[in-house]
Amino acid sequence: MRIRLEGNRAEITLGLIHLREVFTVTAMSRAYPDRAHPRMYRVYVRISPRDNR
Q1: I need a labelling partner for 20 at 20 to 30 A (CA). Which of 5, 9, 26, 36 fits?
Q2: What does DSSP say about strands 41-49 and 32-33: parallel, antiparallel, or unpaired?
Q3: How far apart (Å, rounded) are the C-alpha atoms in residues 5 and 17?
Q4: pLDDT, tens digit, 9 for 90 and up, residues 28-53
Q5: CA–CA separation, 45 vs 27, rounded Å?
Q6: Which residues, other chains included, contact 43 with Cβ-Cβ below 8 Å and sequence gap of 6+?
């Protein structure tokens, strides 16, 4: 699954921390600046479900 996180750097970092608690992050893009909002970024993350055995 591919997810786009949008926000400032602190919000994106916090979002990644929470995602990693539930999913396995398999890939992450660099932080792209948001064209419409200065100081805002977007990051694309690929995740997969964790194997909970």
Answers
A1: 36
A2: antiparallel
A3: 12
A4: 999 999 988 989 999 999 999 988 76
A5: 6
A6: 4, 5, 12, 16, 28, 29, 30, 31, 32
What digits encode the pLDDT tens for the residues 8-19? Answer: 999 999 999 999
Task: Determine the pLDDT at residue 51.
Answer: 81
> Based on the structure, what is the number of domains in the chain?
1
DSSP-assigned states of every residue in 9-40: HHHHHHHHHHHHHHEEEEEEPPPEEPSSSTT-
Q: Is the pLDDT of residue 6 over 90?
A: yes
Domain that holds residue 17: 2-49
